[in-house]
Design brief:
With 339 residues, the protein is of the alpha/beta class. It has 9 helices and 15 strands. This is Agmatine deiminase.
């Protein structure tokens, strides 16, 4: 699932460039699986359908649906899926623009708009009493969740819930049996209060890929070194240490307009069917990141996606997307593509 950038969003000045990135992303994902794109209006839907048709993207790999959003970060406003006894459940958590930093009314309503249009197979379950973003939680699919205290316990999210209450909710509704809390780790330019998907990710039940800063002069060095020590101390359910794969540190990436540092990270990769899409930044570390991810995901294609425009709005590849596992999306005909 992707949410198309609107002309009234923060992407306005970068719209042509970011649309090119979105089209590339859709075309690549559609080689492997179905893509749901939410769009602001009918004219945008018709234009995108024609473009993708000319690129040879099959109609049966696309669902183009009108559902306006405030922004493009589907990872944080999309539904979270839980597989329970082989059946998918879709949970609709409240999204507040990362603790009220940005407008998010349309983002928060988007899942309901999709449900009303019959896009989802399961009934959408409201979790609007809890603020939770998909980028803030990372699971191994077997009951272990990895997150950061600075995000999940931030008073700008759920000030009425302490750590015990958060863990109880994750246990009762997401099937989480244990939570690994990171005390350290951040990226300059990040708006999310240190979402875990920019820092450390499960590759399988035994493996975590994480950001390592190897430049002692960089302002991130101490915090990310402390995060690395925490990851080394974590243990799997069987008591063994995790297999850790360090992702390289890209050179500093700065906004070309005002010069502030942008949160470039290779941890924001996207796992799809038979492939992993990796954010690239035209940096000399890109190739090393591809090698590291090849080690983490043997047998999968590793495909770089240029995210230099995406990062200008302080997110990257994983942030733009939300997976919808088998059993969640109805096989609806794409009536809107050019025939």
């Amino acid at each position: 699932m992707l949410s198309w950038p609107g002309r009234d969003s923060d992407w306005a000045s970068l719209l042509d460039a970011i649309e090119t990135t979105f089209i590339t992303l859709i075309e690549v994902i559609a080689r492997y699986q179905h893509v749901l794109v939410t769009l602001p209006d009918e004219s945008t839907r018709q234009r995108l359908a024609m473009t993708l048709s000319h690129l040879g993207v099959p109609d049966n790999r696309l669902s183009l649906v009108i559902a306006p959003s405030d922004d493009t970060w589907a990872r944080d406003h999309g539904p979270l899926t839980v597989i329970e006894h082989g059946t998918a459940r879709l949970l609709d958590y409240r999204f507040t623009g990362w603790g009220g930093k940005f407008s998010a009314e349309r983002d928060n309503a988007l899942n309901g708009v999709l449900a009303d249009q019959g896009i989802f197979t399961p009934e959408l379950e409201s979790m609007q009493q809890i603020v939770l973003e998909g980028g803030g939680v990372e699971t191994d699919g077997q009951g272990t969740l990895l997150t950061t205290r600075s995000c999940l316990l931030n008073p700008n999210r759920n000030p009425h819930l302490d750590q015990a209450a958060i863990e109880a909710h994750l246990r009762d509704h997401l099937g989480i049996q244990r939570v690994l809390w990171l005390e350290n780790g951040y990226l300059e330019g990040d708006d999310t209060d240190s979402h875990i998907d920019t820092l450390a990710r499960f590759c399988d039940e035994q493996t975590i890929a994480y950001v390592r800063c190897d430049d002692p002069t960089d302002p991130h060095f101490e915090a990310l070194s402390a995060m690395e020590r925490e990851l080394k101390a974590f243990r799997r359910c069987d008591g063994q240490p995790y297999r850790l794969i360090a992702l390289p540190w890209p050179g500093p990436c700065f906004d070309p307009e005002d010069g502030h540092r942008l949160p470039a990270t290779y941890a924001n990769f996207l796992i799809i069917n038979d492939a992993v899409l990796m954010p690239s930044y035209a940096d000399r570390a890109d190739y090393a990141a591809m090698q590291a991810l090849s080690e983490a995901f043997p047998g999968r294609d590793i495909i770089p996606i240029d995210c230099r425009q995406v990062i200008r709005q302080h997110g990257s590849l994983h942030c733009l997307t939300m997976q919808l596992p088998t059993g969640t999306l109805k096989a609806i005909e794409n009536r809107y593509a050019e025939k």
